[in-house]
Design goal:
Radius of gyration: 22 Å
Shape: globular
Helix content: 10-25%
Structural class: mainly beta
Low-confidence stretches: 259-270
Strand content: 25-35%
Distance between the termini: 39 Å
Number of helices: 4
Number of strands: 14
Mean pLDDT: 84
Oligomer: single chain
């Protein structure tokens, strides 16, 4: 399962030594059918400036009033681990054909050792020509770049791709751009490499499947390929513990955390 660890509190001036230790003792009980992978494969270290992007949410959705354009919903959480100083936060968005459609930036002064949220909601015209509907053969993806800038110098770039559309539950029905979706599901996990996995996903889509169901969390590139090929994903967390299926104690198995929280909010009726 992808995980992120903040190392800043443990780093000191000068040379540092970092030890990574993998505890494999609980794997067989929690996820017995997981695909074997090399420990720490795909792991990396990255550094951010003291004033940087901590988190974000983004979507490109139809205008809620029904007008013929889309709205980019973008919230950028900026962080400042230094003194009260200004930082510029911004974005640009390109059409699937490579045309710059919109860009903006704003300067904020974030109190030291805290965060602030910068919100953008521009109109993006021509989106319905690039809509991503259920069953679409091609997936036109917009390119978005988030960035920070200070003293006129760009300090951080964060590229991504997004599709235009909106998926929602309405009266118990799964809807995409106002049309009901019928999911045709198939079991699928990442293969040995992205190229082989992409061929398999295209083969499944050619057979009429539009939804894949992995057995366990997959590498990040697997989800990017599903975006690229236009497949929905019903993911599954690695919380199965079949050897302790009778354990109902709080924290006895990973899934009991949800169960105990549910019972706390909705106690059984006498």
């Amino acid at each position: 399962t992808p995980a992120e660890y903040a190392l800043t509190p443990y780093i000191r001036e000068g040379e540092n030594s970092l030890l990574l230790e993998l505890d494999n003792t609980g794997r067989s009980a929690i996820d017995p059918e997981a695909t074997p992978r090399e420990p720490f494969a795909g792991s990396y270290l990255y550094m951010q400036n003291k004033r940087s992007i901590r988190d974000f949410t983004i979507s490109l959705e139809p205008d809620p009033e029904g007008r013929d354009f889309g709205v980019l919903r973008l919230d950028i959480v900026a962080q400042n681990s230094y003194n009260d100083e200004p930082v510029t936060v911004g974005y640009d968005i390109y059409s699937p054909q490579g045309k710059l459609l919109e860009f903006n930036m704003t300067e904020v002064t974030i109190p030291g050792r805290s965060t602030d949220t910068v919100r953008f909601d521009p109109y993006i015209y021509g989106t319905f020509a690039n809509k991503w509907e259920g069953g679409a053969k091609s997936v036109p993806l917009y390119k978005v770049m988030l960035f920070t800038r200070r003293d006129g110098v760009y300090k951080e770039y964060m590229p991504m791709k997004i599709g235009f559309g909106k998926t929602e539950l309405r009266d118990g029905k799964l809807m995409r751009l106002g049309k009901e979706l019928t999911l045709k599901r198939v079991r699928c996990n990442a293969g040995t490499d992205p190229t082989a996995t992409r061929r398999e996903l295209l083969r499944l889509k050619g057979q009429g499947y539009n939804t894949v169901c992995p057995d366990c969390p997959q590498p990040a590139w697997f989800y990017a390929l599903c975006d690229e090929t236009g497949l929905y994903v019903i993911d599954r967390a690695a919380i199965s513990a079949p050897e302790r299926r009778g354990d109902r104690t709080v924290g006895g198995t990973p899934s009991n955390i949800f169960f105990s929280n549910f019972r706390a909010k909705f106690p059984p009726m006498s």
